[in-house]
Amino acid sequence: MDAAGYKAVWIALFANLSIFLTKAVAAWIGDSAAMFSEALHSLSDLVNSIFLLIGMKMASRPADMEHPFGYGKEVYFWSFIASVFMFGVTSMGSLTRGYHQVVDPHPIAAIELITIALLLAMIFEMFAVRAAMRAVVKDVGVQARGFKVLAASIKNINRVANPAVKFVFFEDAAALIGVVIALMAVLVSELTNNIVYDGIASIIIGVMLGALAIMLAYENRDMIVGRAAHPNIIKRIGDVAMSVSGVVDVKDIKTMYIGAHSLLVNMTLQTKPRLNIEVADDVVDEVERKIIKKISIVKEINIEVEADDYVFDWPRQKKNFDEIV
């Protein structure tokens, strides 16, 4: 189990629990559509964090006869379920509540309480986003400190292999944006005495969360089907193979994620001509050893050598053949 992803999900879970309780009380007392959407959002985030923890726990099981490559893809399945839950509960609920507020607006009560609740939620979300950004940077192995973490996390988010880290990052970012939208809508509604802005904010939050849910569902579906590694990782695998004495070319490299930090590699090598079988086998063993050592994400590797690129040590092979006959 990846420590960075595990820690990020636990932080998100406790943050979402605190935020949900704060928003739920304010939404119940204030009767604001935007506040209701944010409470629903935090409830969905809380449930999604639980789904992610289940997925990470299930994915940590060791390989067995039925699953020789392990259960690493469990985390993608549960992340997909979390995306579906986000779309069905949070997005649809926010859209419905916003629509009713626009069509049949009613006054917002306890505006001070709602404002305080949203400001507190904003502080909680900022801490959660900060932890998620650090998890992204750690996952991709980039060194960054201070404000550089923000730029590094945004730049490298598509390189993240762990869907839990990616999900939490987008989820927390969307939560922070949603809080800002809700706060602005409530204040504008109060200043203009036009409650429609409250409903519009709820609809905007619903659309944003629906789009996020669809995007994350597509990402996890892609990983379940069998996504290849990032081109940079594939290039590193080829470079390591070419550094081994006896290898003259890498003909083909196929990769597939079999877990958040587990990569399956199938590759075809071309070795120097006139190598006997024993030497060619030693070259293959050295390539495999170096790749696994230098690229820790590679957990399973299969290497083939093109048949025409090495030859039998025929005198020795003929002697063995004669002895058998």
Automatic annotation (TrEMBL):
GO MF, any single term: monoatomic cation transmembrane transporter activity
Annotated protein name in UniProt: Cation diffusion facilitator family transporter
GO cellular component: membrane
Taxonomic lineage of the native organism: Bacteria, Bacillati, Bacillota, Clostridia, Eubacteriales
Cross-referenced Gene3D superfamilies: Cation efflux protein transmembrane domain (1.20.1510.10), Cation efflux protein, cytoplasmic domain (3.30.70.1350)
Gene Ontology biological process terms, A to Z: zinc ion transport
Annotated keywords: Membrane, Transmembrane, Transmembrane helix, Transport
Principal location class: membrane
Cell location: Membrane
Organism: Desulfotruncus arcticus DSM 17038
Superkingdom as given in the UniProt entry: Bacteria
Pfam family, one: Cation_efflux
